[in-house]
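ugh ok fine here u go
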Amino acid sequence: MNALGKVLEAGVGSIDVMGGLNEIAGIVNPIAENDNSLALKSALLRAEMNFNRHRRPAPVHTYPPGHPCRADTRPFRCVVIFARQYLEELDDPWGPEKMRTGMGGANEAVIFMSRQLRERGYHVAVYGNPSAADIAAGQDEHGVEWFPFWAYDETNSPGVFVVWWHHQDAVAIGRNAHSRFLWFHYQQYAQRYTPAFMETIDGAFAMSHYHAAQMPDFAHPKTVVSANGIDPALFVDGINDPKRFIYASHPFYGLETLLKVPYAAITSQLSYHCRFGHLISDRTNAGMAKDSREGARFDARSVLRLDEGNAAIFGAKRRQREAIQKLN
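structure:
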């Protein structure tokens, strides 16, 4: 762990380090895992958390004795959502404050879900990458606590520990929780899961049957199909143009497949609007682009397909409410 900390201090990004750990664990396929690689990446995460505590002013948050997030008992009252970020992403904080300007859908899901759980009487703490203002506030107006993920005390025993996104390495951080869950919002790769890892969690929440089907057979009994929630307050009444088609996600997540659907005579009359709000900065995006050549080719194919007799309008970094007002 000390060696990994020295690697981080040398300025090497966590994503790059993970690639090196795969080589150490004997993995050739970059989207695969084995038990050794998962153990190494959990050690890397602890090194990152320790590194961040020295680099950023946020000590380990300690709950007082008797607090449900310190030592929960049945019926469980504390839910911890652990939303770790890579080092490359830390300069783009998100949380309640960013709701005013907009963020990615998976990030919004953490905010909305935590508020719904709070309304149901649970004590909810989100350990993610909140802004300085969110950290200073301690909790949002709904009573949800917000801390940097590196402030989590691994000796805590909350009732439920939920690992957001696809960070399998973070499950071990919540090893003292009474129950542990994965909550992924992304395509899954069966080769990333091992029987031993599945024994460490109580369940995995998938956003669709499509994502659930991508899990290995031995993981299906613990995979629960959930859904993306909708906040009715974000809907605005307005003119509904029957010839306007809005695709509000990254083109990589299914636009090309959708555009293959035959719309017969109306196809040439449709106007396609593709809106995707980027969470990461241009600097982070540039750093990750070196591994995205296929993604770039995909985007090019999508644009060409959209331009074949149709008006194509692409937009990015659009604030949600601004987009709603514009599209309505």
